[in-house]
Amino acid sequence: xxxxxxxLRSKLLLSFLSFTSVPVVIFSYWTxxxxxxxxxxxxxxxxxxxxxxxxxxxxxxxMGQLNNLEKLSSLSELVxxxxxxxxxxxxxxxxxxxxxxxxxxxxxGDLPQSIEEKRxxxxxxxxxxxVERKFQEDVLxxxxxxxxxxxxxxKKTLSVLLADQKEFEELLIINPDGIVVASTFExxxxxxxxxxxxxxxxxxxxxxxxxFISSITEKLTMVISTPxxxxxxxxxxxMAARLNLDLFFQLIRExxxxxxxxxTIVAKELDGEVVFxxxxxxxxxxxxxxxxKFGSNKLxxxxxxxxxxxxxxxxxxxxxxxxxxAWEHIPALGWGILVKLDLDEAVNPYLIVxxxxxxxxxxxxxxxxxxxxxxxxTMINPIxxxxxxxxxxxxxxxxxxxxxxxKDEIGDLANSFGRMIASIKFLMEEKK
Length: 432
Fold this sequence. Notes:
By secondary structure, this protein is of the alpha+beta class.
């Protein structure tokens, strides 16, 4: 009954289980793996669709504002008034060194004592910003009457245009020397933009200056600029627009389809680093503060997006969390965009199905074990009776009655065994 330490019952039980349970276990394992793979693939397909949609929306928004500003700068009424303002006021403004103007991207700055004393009548304890503002007003008030009228007309036009442009929060007109001669925000008039990228590049062509921190507002800002030209092509100055970043960032940070942990990252390569260009869902201060060295082994997916590649897959984000992500390049801005979702949340919708598969597998294994036990008992118990009967016969006990009633081969064996006992009894009685 025993071989290699196993009883016949154990062998039958193991054989039955191997033929019933092993295929179930293999199938269940394959099903779980397939579900896991499918859940990741489904999440990736969703992220790929989202990143393409977002990239297109951001590009459309950016190009739309560039085209919009170009159209605004070519309005005949605006060009005419700017021409009068700039041409008639150039000589007057040039008489005052540009260094005496407050820098547009540098809040304030000490004014020369001679200017404070001679051009602006102020109290000694008056705040520097008030002094500077009075100085700016003094400069602009010295413009010729015709220029003043043109300036008011330009300001009125800018205000009307801005009211119809929710994507912009400020419109400025900058003369060829870099002086802001008109703005929808009066505090910027009279300041200089000389040396600032959007002015210097805006004199040549339409330019998009990426996210930077304005020293005026101390907030993140983006500026579009474009040259203002006459019909003959001569440059009168630059028209600049500060984007409404709340609206722009809302477009980037839209969380529909990203569950509880998903987020969008936009970045650009600056000075050999991949720099975040907007706040993220998990880090509202990420813009310009989160960065990684280009070419490092961190945020590789984002680096690929910045360098013009697209793709999707498993990645580690800036929080060192395993995520599923899809990434694209935004040509209009030279940005990379990455949309990601924590892996745990991505596969979560399929966990219930996986748990059900496991429960079904365990139930099948349990039922299989019970059935195997019952089947083995129906085979082993009769054999054990025959074994016990043979041992009693060997001891001379012929009063044996078998209770085996099965109709299979074991039942036939029991019947033969019974006839053998009867024959032995008959022979023993004959000898007496």
